[in-house]
Amino acid sequence: MLRLQHVPNVGDIIAKKLIAHCGSPEEVFRNKQSQLLKIDGIGTYTLRHLNDSEHILAAEKEYQYIVDNKIDFCYFEDLGYPKHLKHCIDSPILLFKKGNMDLEGRKIISVVGTRNITSYGTAFCEQFIADLVPLNPIIVSGFAYGVDICIQREAINQGLQTIGCLAHGLNQIYPKVHAKYQKEVWENGGFFTEFWSTSNPERENFLKRNRIIAGMSEATVVVESAEKGGSLVTADIAHSYNRDVFALPGRSTDKYSMGCNNLIKQQKAHMLTSAADLVYLLNWELEEKKSSAVQKQLFVDLDETEQKIYGYLQQQGKQLLDSIALDCQIPIFRASSTLLNMEMKGVIRPLPGKMFEAI
User: What pTM did the predictor assign?
Assistant: First the structure.
C-alpha cells in the first residue's frame, strides 16, 4: 500500500480503481501493464513509473519509521477507517494516526475558521462546545492558528475528544508553537494525516488536508472567515460531499464574517446561532436527561418574553401565532418578531400554517 501511495500520477481515485480491478494493492504490481490499461481512466502516462524500484525503497524506509515510532495506520477498506470519510471518492487510501481516539458510533463534527479569530468567534466557540457537552461529540479541526486551536482546546477543557488533521507527517507539528498542546490532544483524541514523515507543511498539503476534515465529519461548521480563506475551501468540499455546512453570521461590515455571510447568502450553509441549530438540523437524538440539560443551557439566553412563549409552547404543544399572542397577552407584531428571534436561537421551530412548537 505504501509503495502504491508513493507512485506519482497515481492519486487516491486512480489507486482505488487499480485495487478494485486487481483485488489488492500487491496484485496491482503483479498485473501486466496491458491488463491495467483496460481500466477506464488509466493511461500509459499514469502507469509509466508504476514499477520503478525507488518506490519499493521509499516504502520500506517509511514502514520502518512507522514501526519505530509506533504509528497506527488504516487502509480505506479497514473497519477502523473513519466511516464518513470512507464514502468520499477521493478519500486517502491510507491514513496514519496517533493518539487515544475512539470513533466507533460517535457523533463527529468539524469546526474551522480564520487564523485571525476575534473575541466574537472565541466567545461563540466557548459557548458552542459547552452546549454540546451532553451529546459528547468528537470535534475535528486542523490544529492551526485561530479558530482551529481555539475549538480544539475548548473541546479538551470540556472533556471532549478532538482530532487534528495535519498537512504533514507525524514526525513534526506545525505551527511549532502548538507543540505545547500536542500531548493534550494525544490524550483526548489524536491526529490523522495521509502524509509521510518526509512531507513538510507545503501549501498544497493544506488544501488536500481540508478534504479529510470535511469528509470524516457529519457536518462542517465555519466560525469566522474573511471573503477568501482555507475554511471556505473546506466548506465547499463538505458541500460537494452532500454534508451539512453551518456558518456563524456576523455584521456585514466585519471582515471576518464576510465569508460566513456569503456561505449563508449563497445557500451553501445553514445559519448557525447556537448549538441547538446544529442539533435540530442534524436530527441528533438526545436522551431525556441530556435534552433537559441542553434546554436548561439554552433557556438562560431567553429574555422574559421569550421565556413566557417558550413555557407556553412546552405546555400547550403546537400553537398558531394568533393563539400565542392572545394567550400570552403579547401584541401580535411583537409576538411575531419574538418568535423569529427564538427560531434563530434554535428553541422553537416554525410549522406550516403559521404554527410553532418548542424544540
Answer: 0.78
Which CATH number is 32's domain given?
Answer: 1.10.150.20
Q: How confident is the model at residue 288 (pLDDT cuts 50, 70, 90)?
A: very low
Q: What is the distance between the alpha carbons of residues 240 and 215, in angstroms, rounded to a whole number?
A: 10
**Termini Cα distance of the chain:** 48
**Structure confidence at residue 297 (pLDDT):** 53
User: For 225, phi and psi rounded to 5 degrees?
Assistant: -160, 140
Whether residue 141 is found in the same domain as residue 274:
yes
The residue type found at 10 is: V
For β-strands 138-141 and 244-247, DSSP reports them as unpaired
**Domain of residue 207, residue span:** 108-281
Q: Which residues of 188-215 are buried (b: 16+ CB within 10 A; e: fewer)?
A: bbbbbbbbbbebebeeebbebbbbbbbb
**308 and 277 both lie in a single domain:** no
* DSSP run (H or E) holding 72: strand 72-75
274 shares its domain with 314: no
User: Count of residues for the chain?
Assistant: 359
The CB density around residue 133, as the number of other CB atoms within 10 Å, is 17
**Does residue 163 lie within any of the structural domains?**
yes
User: Same structural domain for residues 249 and 166?
Assistant: yes
Q: Based on the domain organization, do 167 and 310 belong to the same domain?
A: no
Q: Please indicate, yes or no, if residue 81 is contained in any of the structural domains.
A: no
Give the range among 61-65, 88-92, 125-129, 338-342 with minimum mean pLDDT.
Answer: 338-342
Does 274 score more than 60 pLDDT?
A: yes
**pLDDT category of residue 287 using cuts at 50, 70 and 90:** very low
